[in-house]
Structure formats: structure tokens, C-alpha cells
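Z., the sequence and structure:
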Amino acid sequence: MIVVSNASPLIGLALIDQLDLFPALYERIYIANAARIEVIEKGKRRPGAVELAQADWLVPLTVSRRALAALRPYPSGLRAGEIETIALALQQRADIVLIDERLARKFAQSKGLQVLGTLGVLKQAHTRGLLPDLRGALDALRACGFRFSDTLYRQILIE
């Protein structure tokens, strides 16, 4: 399974000390350079930055100019990390792209990509028996300032 991640899911799981869910769910995760810079270099004082820099399951890749050009025109409001993540997912023919931001998710889906966000990763881990307390993980994310709607919170718990 080919998985490409944007910065947000990595940051989210790092905030609640659940980075170990990634290699348990996916053998390897690819990350575009712009997203890697956001998580590891600019985020070097954030929780998980050191662990992510050393993680052998997180593989940085360069996005080809061709893949970036194929995305144009892209919606205004997308950041470099999101654009490169979507381009890398297309370049690698990813099975899943991990991305949270609504505009980026919609754009990725419009390009035919299967999208999963941080909450979806937590739900998947819970379903596979890797995360016993889904509600606790969601509450911990919120306590760290990770924003998501009450409707989405309830929907994840009901499913």
C-alpha cells in the first residue's frame, strides 16, 4: 500500500504521542519535501519532530516538476506542503493520501485520490485494535488545539 502524508496528520499524532500507529498501520509513508520541512525543520521544537526525523518508515521524496505542473491550476489558498503532497500522491500512484485541510482534501479527491485525515487514521487504528480508547485520543487532540467539529467527533465515535 502506498501512503503519502501531509504535515497535519503527523503533527496531530505526535501531539498525542501516537506516532507508533503509523508504522503499525502502514509499512511506509512518503512525505513531500515541503511537508517534511514544515514538520521536521520548522517544527523542530514541536513534539515528535525528533522522532519523525529519525523514523525509518517516513520516507521523504522529491516531487517532479511534471507532477506539480499537472496540478495547475490549483485553488488559491492551498499551501506549498498541500500542493506537493497531492502532487506526490499522484506521482507515486498512492492508495491513500493523509491530509486534513478541507480545501486540500476536496482538491485531492477531485484528482481521484483516496483521502484520509488524522481522525480517520485514529478510527482505522481503533478498528484494527491498535488504539483501545478512540474517545480519549480525540479528546487529547482537542486539548492540544487540534480543531474539528462536534459533528465529526460524534460521527467518528458512532461509526
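The longest strand covers residues 29-32. The CA atoms of residues 72 and 83 lie 10 Å apart.

Let me know what you think.
H.
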